[in-house]
Amino acid sequence: MAEKPQIVLDEEVMRFVLAAPATKRRRLMAQLDHLRNHSFEPADFREKDRSGRWLSVKALRPFLITYWQDDAVDELRIVDIQHLR
Fold first, then answer.
1. Can you give the pTM of this predicted structure?
2. Tens digit of pLDDT for each residue in 36-64?
3. What CATH number corresponds to the domain at position 28?
4. What SS3 class is residue 11?
5. Residue among 82, 16, 11, 18 nearest 44 (CA)
6. Residue span of the structural domain in which 12 resides
7. Is residue 67 assigned to a domain?
């Protein structure tokens, strides 16, 4: 069985997670685990960042998670999380 990628949070994402209330934080961590366990599934849509790298965006209600998969080191790099209302 293949190893699951490690989740790596950018600094601003980490601040978002740490500032969230406990209930929201637990739900977010569950969604990140879901993304990790299903990283092979296609994203809902893709967009380019300022450097031209393709970012995947996945809507996992109530969050919109933007990430890129770094296959060289088997990581999911989480670059943005938005709370959808």
1. 0.90
2. 999 889 999 999 999 999 999 999 989 99
3. 3.30.2310.20
4. helix
5. 82
6. 6-83
7. yes
